Amino acid sequence: MHEVNLANRAAPKKQNKVANLRSHVIIPGLNRNGSANRLKILVAITGASGALYAQRLLDNLDPHTHEIHVVQSNYAQQVIAEELPGGLRLPAGVKSHGLKSMNAPFASGSNPPDAMVVIPCTMGTLGRIAHGYSEDVLLRAADVVLKEKKKLILVPRETPLSLIHVKNFELLLLAGATLIPANPSYYAGAKTITELADTVVARVLDHLGVPNQLAPRWAEEKE
Q1: 3-state secondary structure of 97
Q2: pTM for the whole structure
């Protein structure tokens, strides 16, 4: 798949106008100088099917640009062993934390991450977060992110949904969380499972404010 640089298609007479606009607009994920804001991001992986989503998110977060932390639930490791034959690949510079280690920096509201992504997210984890259970560092971190008004993104992968699930969704939305269900899009013409997963991961990156070109945007012209 080819990305189209729409800026290059602009007519010459509009280029100065576009340049002037860019000097006054801050693009999400970029500071006023046009470079990426350094974010502290916690990636939490649970035992829901869809370990590829977590892997592709980690593949597209640069530890040289952002401070990346990872924590896994107990059952996540078994699912990863089934779905990722080579295991989870952690880019150099990513910091991994034990599930029961309350010494992790993000376990306290005095040092919260800028953003936390639970990907994929089981309904059990989602329900515990919705009701404030904090018996391990993954759940405690989610509690911290919500109470400190930081960005919490949950990527649930479950079907069908019960009324209990929907009510937990409602609680989390009211508390300020963002829900991005693992529903891939097909209009981009993905040719591999990885490309299909990337249509979900691209939306997660968008909401983190991390610029990406993982998947074509709707109505973009193809080269």
Answers
A1: strand
A2: 0.83
- pLDDT tens-place string over residues 4-45: 444 444 444 444 443 443 333 334 455 555 456 899 999 999
Task: Find, among 128, 134, 119, the residue nearest to 168 by Cα.
Answer: 128
Expressed as residue numbers, the domain containing 69 is 37-208
CA dihedral 122, 66, 136, 207 (to 10 degrees): -40
Question: What CATH number corresponds to the domain at position 111?
Answer: 3.40.50.1950
Q: How many CB atoms lie within 10 A of CB 40?
A: 17
Is 53 a member of any domain?
Answer: yes
Total Cβ atoms within 10 A of residue 214: 22
**Quick one: tokens of 71?**
């924590």
Does any domain span residue 31?
A: no
Dist. CA 116–CA 114, nearest whole Å:
7
The answer to whether 119 and 204 have CB atoms below 8 angstroms apart is: yes
Output the six-digit token pair for 73: 């639930």
Domain count, the chain: 1
pLDDT tens for 158-202 read 999 999 999 999 999 999 999 999 999 998 899 999 999 999 999
Output the six-digit token pair for 181. 């269900």
